[in-house]
User: What shape does this take?
Amino acid sequence: MNTYETDTNLNRRRFLSAAAAALSVALAGGSGHASASRTNLQESKTKLPPMHKETKPEVAMLLYPGVTLLDLIGPQSVLAPSCNVHVVWKNTDLLETDSGIVMKATSTLEDCPKDLDVLFVPGGEFSIMRDEEVLRFLADRGSRAKYVTSVCGGSIVLGAAGLLQGYEATSHWSARDKLSLFGATPVEARVVRDRNRISGGGVTAGIDFGLVLLKELLGEDVAKMSQLALEYDPAPPFDAGTPEKAGPEIMGKMQEWLGPMGDVLTPMCAAAAKDMGKHMPVVN
Assistant: This one.
């Protein structure tokens, strides 16, 4: 390789690195948490301003071990440039998501703002719905939040916290029917809104959910700008995103892969439903 080729490759890598860093800063604009290891590019004010001139809504997004990463990152990417997003957990230690990627919270449950515009719960490891500290936090913040929201199995966790009784909601297709155990009405839809409860279906529905929520918070133009910034224009190569579209053959293979998950989840939800409501704060 000659000197020209070497210089060209180095410049190409530097350009790609700079572009990636700029995009990362833009999408993470709502977190407000600077890293000590920021690159020189990040320090040179490449951070984009908010997409609006309104006060930034306060959003708390629950993080926990085994969380489904895309459940969280999809809506976070939609909301972060326009909102103050607090990714919350019991501590700020590193933890592993379901896909093996390691993350950490930006705020503890205790330090999370008391009054929120949005409380959000993603899906993942269902045992979280038996965590007393988490349920107390959700019940407390959810009792005052302007919007109580979820994606995928996060609605099951909201149900366990007593926050979906009497509401319509959705979840991942494999768990949606369990919502009835918590006094909710399961609805088969990509995004479901019932008064101030907004829930998204499984995993990738989190982006649709985020855009619907952003429209409620800051208007349709801001939501459309966020969609454009993310170039969210889905055109999947296969039409197999629901059980009905996938057909019996693929569903059979899917059920075989999932194994006895349903047999485990049903009694777990039933046990959580018996304790539902005990975490709700007492209103004088």
The radius of gyration is 20 Å. The chain has one domain: 58-232+248-274. The domain at 58-232+248-274 is CATH 3.40.50.880 (Rossmann fold). Residues 1-35 have pLDDT under 50 and may be disordered.
